[in-house]
Specification:
CATH class of the largest domain in chain A: Alpha Beta
CATH superfamily of the largest domain in chain A: Thiolase/Chalcone synthase
CATH topology of the largest domain in chain A: Peroxisomal Thiolase, Chain A, domain 1
Largest sheet of chain A: 9 strands, mixed
CATH topology of the largest domain in chain B: OB fold (Dihydrolipoamide Acetyltransferase, E2P)
Oligomer: heterodimer
Number of helices of chain B: 1
Strand content of chain B: 35-45%
Radius of gyration of chain B: 18 Å
CATH class of the largest domain in chain B: Mainly Beta
Distance between the termini of chain A: 50 Å
Shape of chain A: globular
Number of helices of chain A: 12
Structural class of chain A: alpha/beta
Shape of chain B: globular
Order of helices and strands of chain A: EEHHEHEHEHEEEEEHEHHHHEEHEH
Largest interface: A-B, 36 and 30 residues
Largest sheet of chain B: 5 strands, antiparallel
Structural class of chain B: mainly beta
Distance between the termini of chain B: 59 Å
Chain lengths: ~350, ~140
């Protein structure tokens, strides 16, 4: 059955505390508690989606002990591709040693472009068009200075190699739910996204994640009790917990995937990072229920079962926790310099 | 108008993305950047492509505190000569470490970073830099 044959993550080293951002704008310094985001990752001045994707993909190749020349498809999902026109995937493919005989494209669907890439790779593998497909969710998310998004917009990447031979976790089923809901967008040429403030909750996140989850429960004829872990997209620390409460998920089944508290919302990598954190620790036989969310809006829901094969691969590459613990704090002025918010520097 | 520097960057992509040089099969010497002729064996040399493992030690380094315009955002930063395990020595930036913590002999691994960009609308050049080797804890059960 089709599944994950290798995965790897990357989180930049720098962090800023949400309290420090709040101090700059005169907001409540305890905003971290209200949002459920205490600090967020910040990319270095020489990091972007291409470099983060390459680091994650190299970890995935090493984890799966995969010959990169066997990869037949590379898809990179992000809303912060370094080029408007020139695929990030071409850079990734060259940097991990793929051959030129691959299909490749960049995806964009706000925070769920990475899981859309997983679904594409599943289709290509199941139809035997490719042996292995590489799906990446990666972002260096933008938040306008002083905007609510600035407290959570973070950076990170997750690469998942999809194949059907000896997977470390099988993807048993997937469904999607998509509508035209304008809760968050960025127009061509704009530096920062716009959003519908409170509108991003009920009609956008909760409706799409909730409907996606219910649809997959119906399709698989399962209930919350059939799963050991749940991951919902994490725009902040509150939304996935509220979503879990609405669906009747016990908080302890959500806890292990809530990486948003310590690294922020890594956008296209967000739900995938929670999944990777669970794959780092889950015992064989565990079942994972993941629902990603992308503004605009849509959700992709997955049922994933951890296989015994996973035990043979652990310890090869840094875990999500290894990256979370490797950190250096920066203040707002250094953050502004690294994120190109100082206009005079260009 | 053709963008300046594109062809020069494109020719080097394979070498600078993956630290790909070559090895002389006659004298077993590794070269980076790749050589056209083995300087030791001359016409008896047999050169083959070789992808370096990307691990090495800092041979020597300097901390740059007065940088060119394009690198001001990164100041202060470290430029080092890294002696790769295979023997070749290359010049590269050291990242993911505070400059005062860098020392001669430090174990480093190659990472993929943005080297420079040709203005806001120009080409972005990617390639190798080095960082201290990262702790891998394994994946313990909770």
């Amino acid at each position: 059955m089709v599944g994950i044959v290798g995965y790897g993550v990357y989180v930049p080293r720098y962090r800023i505390k949400t309290g420090d951002i709040a101090n700059v704008w005169g907001a409540d310094p305890n905003i971290g508690k209200a949002l459920g985001v205490f600090e967020k990752s910040v990319p270095g001045p020489d990091e972007d989606v291409a470099t983060i994707s390459v680091e994650a993909a190299r970890n995935a190749v090493k984890y799966g002990r995969i010959d990169p020349t066997k990869i037949g498809a590379v898809y990179v999902g992000s809303e912060s591709h370094p080029y408007a026109v020139k695929p990030t995937g071409t850079i990734v493919a060259e940097a991990i040693g793929c051959t030129a005989d691959i299909t490749c494209a960049d995806y964009e669907f706000a925070c769920k472009a990475g899981t859309a890439a997983i679904q594409t790779c599943m289709g290509l593998v199941q139809s035997e068009m490719v042996e292995l497909g590489l799906a990446i969710g990666s972002d260096t998310a933008q938040g306008r200075p002083g905007d609510a998004l600035e407290y959570s917009a973070a950076a990170g990447g997750v690469a998942i190699i999809v194949g059907d031979k000896k997977p470390v976790a099988t993807i048993e089923d997937t469904v999607s739910y998509t509508t035209d809901t304008p809760d968050f967008w960025r127009r061509e040429g704009e530096d920062f996204p716009s959003h519908g403030a409170r509108f991003t909750g009920e009609p956008a996140y909760f409706r799409h994640v909730g409907e996606g989850a219910k649809s997959l429960f119906r399709k698989t004829k399962t209930t919350v009790d059939d799963y050991d872990y749940f991951v919902f997209h994490m725009p902040n620390g509150k939304f996935p917990i509220s979503m879990g409460r609405q669906l009747g998920v016990p908080p302890e089944k959500l806890e292990d995937g809530l990486v948003v508290r310590s690294i922020g919302n890594t956008y296209s990598a967000s739900a995938m990072m929670g999944l990777a954190r669970i794959l780092d620790i889950a015992e064989p036989g565990s079942k994972i229920f993941m629902v990603s969310y992308g503004s605009g809006a849509g959700s992709d829901a997955f049922v994933i079962k951890v296989e015994k094969e996973i035990e043979k691969h652990r310890g090869q590459v840094p875990t999500v926790d290894d990256y979370i613990e490797r950190k250096t704090y920066v203040d707002y002025s250094v953050y502004a310099k690294y994120r190109r918010k100082i206009v005079a520097l260009g | 108008m053709a963008e300046k520097g594109v062809a020069q960057v494109w020719r080097k992509i394979r070498a600078i993305y993956n630290i790909q040089g070559n090895i002389c099969k006659t004298c077993d010497t590794h070269f980076f950047p790749p050589r056209l002729v083995c300087p030791n064996c001359r016409r008896k040399g047999q050169l083959e492509d070789y992808k370096f493992k990307g691990l090495g030690n800092i041979h020597t380094f300097t901390i740059v505190r007065q940088a060119p315009e394009d690198f001001k955002r990164q100041m202060p930063y470290v430029v080092a000569q890294v002696e790769l395990d295979e023997g070749a020595r290359i010049t590269a930036q050291i990242v993911n470490v505070d400059p005062e913590d860098v020392e001669i002999g430090m174990r480093v691994r190659a990472c993929f970073r943005k080297i420079t960009e040709y203005g806001g609308g120009g080409l972005i050049v990617y390639g190798y830099k080095f960082e201290p080797v990262l702790k891998v804890t394994g994946h313990p059960y909770p």
